[in-house]
Amino acid sequence: MAVVGGEAVEEDVAVAAMVVAALLSKSMPLLEQAVLDLCCTTLPESVAIADLGWNDFNAVFKSLPTFHEKMKEENGEEFGPCHVAAVPGSFYHKLFPSRRLHFVHSSCSLHWLSQVPPELLNKQITNKGKIYLSKTSSPALIDAYASQFQRDFSLFLKLRSEETVPGGRMVLSLMARRTPDPVSDESCLLWDLLAQALQGLVSEGLIAEEKLDSYNAPYYQPYTEDLETGIENDGSFSINGLEIMVLPWDSASGGQNYDRPTTAQKIAKSMKAVQEPMLASHFGAEIMDPLFKRLMEIIAADTREVEHVSVLVSMTRKA
């Protein structure tokens, strides 16, 4: 997630962070079990973190003094040194030396593709007026997105299997869907509402129609059973557990139930925090505020419920 200056941006990021924190809270028992199982056999000497390409990790580095102080408070002055470093690159490329990682955790990332499906980039397939899959998507478009995810996920597993020691653990959490239908509201609703907001700006002359037609999201929410199949086909990892987590938006704010306009505002803020860098680079920064204001109004007027569906997978690297 790219973070730039300004109180409004910080507030948007804070709302999105609450959703991620809620998902992490639900996934913590499985994460802790994976670490405990690992440390019963071998104790890793380092922790490596990889994130989306547009996160420069400045926020992580700024938090290091507080982190070190907390370690001293909890473990005393004799606690061993903790070395922190950043490794540039995409997690769809090799990041670490072979057989060096004991524990890998990918959180809320693998639903982002390495690129928009090539069939859309070279205009073999069009997606007029839309920015992702929808109820009107052609079978060819659906297949293009599914194939791109399968290629990316297979590559990710291959690379991490090379970097992970035999017996090492890997825990993945990503947005997913419970239904085999790739254009269900569960995975496409918010994208469809965002497309409606963009269409509104086209009708007002703020965005060229061609500009909208040339934008497609590098994103895909896989069916949980397809994830299992992909892991089994790769053959490098055995699955220890798979859990589906469903998080209503309101529960990301302390479990409070809000009225629809308030919920719409929170959803729009969260989407803006995550998607503004990509949208602004394509459509221009000047239309971001009117775009997300319109999106908030569209969500408030829509009666359908919105839920986050994610999957948590715990695996062990085979010998």
Automatic annotation (TrEMBL):
Keywords: Magnesium, Metal-binding, Methyltransferase, Transferase. The keyword Methyltransferase applies. Gene3D superfamilies: Methyltransferase, alpha-helical capping domain, Vaccinia Virus protein VP39. InterPro entries: MeTrfase_7 (IPR005299), MeTrfase_capping (IPR042086), SAM-dependent_MTases_sf (IPR029063). GO terms for biological process: methylation. The keyword Iron does not apply. It holds the Pfam family Methyltransf_7. One of its GO terms (molecular function) is methyltransferase activity. This is Jasmonate O-methyltransferase.
